[in-house]
Specification:
Strand 8 and strand 9 (197-203) form a beta hairpin. The protein has helices spanning 2-10, 15-27, 32-39, 43-55, 74-95, 112-125, 136-141, 143-151, 217-248, 253-259, 261-342, and strands at 30-31, 59-61, 68-71, 107-110, 129-135, 155-161, 171-175, 187-193, 197-203, 210-214. The N and C termini lie far apart (172 Å). The strands form 2 sheets. It has a 7-stranded mixed β-sheet with strand order 4-10-9-8-5-6-7, with helices on both faces. The radius of gyration is 51 Å and the shape is elongated. It is of the alpha+beta class and 343 residues long. Among the domains are: 2-95, Orthogonal Bundle (Arc Repressor Mutant, subunit A), CATH 1.10.10.10; 107-247, 2-Layer Sandwich (Endonuclease, Chain A), CATH 3.30.870.10.
Length: 343
Amino acid sequence: MEDIHLHLKNLGFTELEAKCLHVLAECGTQTGYEIAKELGVSRSNVYSALQKLAEKGAVLTSHGEPTHYQSVPIEEIGERVEAELQASIRYVKEHMPKQDAHRSEYFSLEGDVKVLDRIRTELRKAKEEALCDLWAQEAQLLKEELRQVPARGVRLLVSTIGDAALPGGVHQFPHKRDAAWSERKGRKFTLLIDRKLAIVGTRGGDEPTLAMLTEHPAMVELLLNSFWRDVVIHELQQDMGAKLEDKYGKNFKKIIQKYTEGKEKGNQLDDVGKSLESKSGEGKPQENKNGEGESQESKNGEGKLQEGKNESKSNEEKPRAGKASEEKSNESKSGEGKRKKKK
């Protein structure tokens, strides 16, 4: 019953109006008092709701006391609502100001319903080409929209992960990824519509469904190049799968290890080398200090040698001084002798 009320509200009825229509459809002709009693709400609110329903042409009223109410057949209500809605849509399309729909910014969507609805809408709007990279689960949910794309003459290429049975007319490229591709953080998906709109997102796992959409040229080119690389690899594996696996390992594992595991080992060796250089650098200042000590000792040795030379010179000068003193003394005595003889 709640679902019926919800959809009646989507058609433009209030919650109480929807409940009154449901009671009339289920019980037939009723008075306002009987409807209020059935719903357990005040009579004044029920009479107000019934009056609005009559104005909308959804119920018929009788003349007399008490007034009786009868629901118009739901088919008639649906036709009237549809006609009014289509008229409103046409008017809005004609008179709403046009705007540039280029979405160069990055817009985000959250929630499973919002994300899937947006993807379905963009697939329906595709005019020339749609390139999709999807897991089997998402491909199954979008199966009907994917079927309609090539039916409109739009080229559709889908790279799938897992067992995905897609409708005829879809160019499918099964993506061979090993068990390392875990779903723990969600299944990644990408779509490129008319080489103009890029959609990237995740679904499943422990996180909520998220998606980002943009018309930024950088993201569009990135997805386009990535998709064509997948197509090229698919064709190579189809033609030379055994040879490629023998040379490069399953899913090109040897190539990946060459630039990942080897790099990590290289980094470790670099770290060891840097550590050794660091320790060697720490030893060099000590060596310099030792060298400074040796230099100082050398200087001290030179000083001592110089002192020895000075002492030697001093000792040599002392005998000479003595001889000079003796010579002076002798000269003095000789002069005194000469003076005595003259006398």
